Amino acid sequence: MANVLRHLPELEGMELGYIQGIMKDMDDEQASFFANVYRARRKDNQMILILCLIGFVGFAGLHRFILGQIGLGILYLLTAGLCFIGTIVDLVNYKSLAYEYNIKIAHETLNMMNFNRG
Fold first, then answer.
1. 3-class secondary structure, 106
2. Which residues fall within 8 angstroms of residue 49, CB to CB, at 6 or more apart?
3. 13, 94, 98, 106: which has the fewest C-beta neighbours closer than 10 Å?
4. pTM above 0.85?
5. What are the C-alpha distances in Å from 28 to residues 7, 35, 90, 117?
6. Half-sphere exposure of 79 (CA within 13 A, CB side)
7. Tens digits of residue pLDDT in 78-106
């Protein structure tokens, strides 16, 4: 059983628990590979928060582009964050936006590892 805190010490909260569940059956080599790929692709909560705050100075939707939601990013950009209401809602929910994206990336990384094995 791999120690998630040894491979990904920056994780916390719900993300830590979720990734710990994914890594519980991995040996150290697999866990190290998973951690390296996952770390490179995951998004930090603070980055999402900062990009969301930039939406109040005229560049709304940058956080949606970073999260891979191009359509919503364009909509936010053209509507000033849906008249700032969407940006305010995202500002409140920035942690869950980052968590949902990171869970998706964790599953993509796991699928990539399984594809490489067989």
1. helix
2. 91, 94
3. 13
4. yes
5. 9, 10, 37, 16
6. 13
7. 999 889 999 999 999 999 999 999 999 99
